[in-house]
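Section 5.1 Outputs to date
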Amino acid sequence: MMDILIRADAYPEIGAGHVMRCLALAHALKERQVDVTFVGRIDSELMRRRIADDGFNHVPLTMVWPSYEDLIVMAELVEKTVYVPLVVLDGYLFDLAYQQKISALGVKVVVIDDTAHHPTYHADLIINQNIYGKTLRYRNECDGRLLLGSEYAMIRPEFLGRKPSGPPVVPERARKILVSFGAGDPDNVTGLAVNALKETGLDDLEVKVVVGPLNRHIETLRRSLTVTSFKAELLTEVIDIASLLSWAELAVVAGGSTCWELALLGIPALVVIVADNQIALAAGIDRAGMAANCGWFHTLTVAQLADRIKTLINDGPHRRLMAEIGRQLVDGGGAGRVADQLMAAA
């Protein structure tokens, strides 16, 4: 039995996307008889409990790289664990120096990356699950393999169980609207989306607003949702997010991993960019026809977003095409493909 360490964080400033997609990979590795331990700063008790309930260990960090406490903990774990052939790194902090120091512990380094933003990498395997992944150029000190493109999109098991077996069922007019901007949403883009839905003037909508465990604007959102002409519900500490995404007929979301989950389920989406690392993803899925890119949140007015929402709500053929393209791009096998490559590299 081998052990694999996954180094990933989740706190308000960066959200929970790194940890959540690594959970998908962890489940695929578990199916292959691999023990997985998460290492990182994870502020949410709900997320820490999720990791434990899913059968994985978590070693907490209070200080992350460039603090050397990070490396000290990693070194101790590698030393005391019987067989750790590789370490998975998922996070923008893990630069060349960090990768080199992890490699110096005598393990292979796997980097999950979105933007090729480091000038140089030191990795035995680099994974970019995004639609634009094949267009990026990675300068790597190692002769490492590249796994690039949406065929490597890592989807958690709860979503795989809800993958439709037939063609997407898309109503001519969307009424069930899901709003979700990740675990943190420090700029309260959720509030922008709620105000835009109010601005549409559509009173027959059913809106579910999902707020993550790291969100600091819950009470503001709760007050806002008490005054709507449509049926609205604020959902916090959601355990079964897969059922909510499956319920939706249209989603308003950030340009993160949720886009791949929606694609698998055949749910059309409007995407609002909330961070630099989402620019290429939003543009790529818009070009592919999988979702509509609404641009940066700070340049998007309530009226503009309301118009985009209202137009797509009433455009059944466009939403049907989005759903079909999404299903073509993401088949749900990405985590398994990545896990097989990790096993081969170990």
